[in-house]
Write the structure tokens for this entry.
Amino acid sequence: MDFWDILQYAAWAAAALLVLWMVFDAIRISQHFSEDVLTSSQEGIDELALQQEQHRSGR
Amino acid sequence: MSDVALDQATTTATPTVINLRKVLGPAHVWALGVGIVLVGEFMGWNFSVAKGGAYGSLVACWVVGLLYTCVAMIDSEITSTVAAAGGQYAQAKHTTGPLMAFNVGLYLVMAYTMLEAADVLVIGDLVKMGAEELGRPGVDPHPFVFFMVAALAFLNYRGVFMALSVNFLITAIAFVSIIVLWIGVHPFSPGEITQHAEMLAIQPLPELSNVPGLPYGWMGVLASFQFGIWYYLGIEGTCQAAEEVRSAGRSLPLGTMTGMITLLIAAALTWWICAGMLPWDYLGQALAPLYDASKMSGSTFLHVLLWVATVFSATASANGCINDASRAWFSMGRDRYLPQWFSAVHPKYRTPYRSILFLIPIAVAFGFTGLLAQTITFSILSGLLGYTFMPINVMKFRRKWPLGSIKRGYVHPGHPIPAIVLFILCVATLFAVFLGFGAQLLAMMMFYILASIWFAFHRYKYVRRGDQFTMSWPRPLGY
């Protein structure tokens, strides 16, 4: 087994670990948050503009 | 959302709003657009030389450059007002209607996912090629394909700021490497390293052409347009960052237009270097022509630099494609054009994490096929269909919301001339694609027609029609 063989196995292993981490994290997030919260994103809402507006009006 | 609100969401799970994070600036927009495209200078554009000769490829570089300049101008104007993830999909939703928006969304997802697959496939081949040059033949490219997709998806999963900051760095290195190579081949000493006079003295084939320098005549030049697209394919991807830039009205036009200028410079330098160092019949079928030119220069430094830059350009392209495809998929999910499950935003990283995850196996599957030409053709055709819609899009946009009726971050000059020029060039390029990939073009049209039927008869009933229009604009003119 030479350097390139080891590199190929390392690539398989690292890729599998990264994908598994993302899958487990996604499952964990789904368990901790409701779907309503996770899918609550709204198009056309400019948070920065709202914050600036609130800052200007002293709130 | 503030950190306080996020903490509240974490601890009590009370309903709150989790949006994508607005952290990007013009440099990130530049990195997204140029990052996706620059790989096309390192490979792919040179197939246009096989169709139309070196001069034909140069004409394609200019004409298709004009096409993309129109795309960049039109996109900059509309996206500076429609600041929503999904880019052209969100634009189509506002200007045209749901069925067109669904199709545009699919074009985007397909174009970027297929381009991502082609990029990682190329990275796998480059690792294999590098190993061979170091005396180790037979290296399997598949683990490297899988690793690149997983690593870049991980980067995108953890946050858009870091993903596009990395893209900025590696794209800048790849761009500078082209300039370094140009300087390295002594551009002000013609004949010393580059041999343009000799290389460009291409004899026309008597039965096809009587124009010196054009082996297949003007029809060959037209046919070369389909690969001339590689010089710029993907610059319109900057629009996908619209919801995550701090100032859409400023950052998107600035990032997109400077990106387009960068690509025009890179394309011109690339053509000049390669056309002067590689015979046209070799250049027309080379896998990585800039890398080949660096080897021809005789400099070990340039040889190593261009290998690294080629890998970086493909990596930056794949990284940008993951970003863009996931935003388009996410945006369609949010509007219920697809299951709403895909519209989830990660509460900590504020990324469309389910869309990023969902597209991983698709990119890996196409990357594993090894079918580079077919994969990239599917991407190009999807992109072209999207560009053909843009003139219609901007005409409707200007008619419904004339200048002065809504605030625009950028107003493109000369309307409707760019729209008309873009439409004519798209039709010419689609004809060129039909000449080379007629069967694929028809098969892909069939795919989109079937998908449209599915959407119209099955999916549209889930769409909340009243929620489609999200911009705080006045009622369109005439309604």
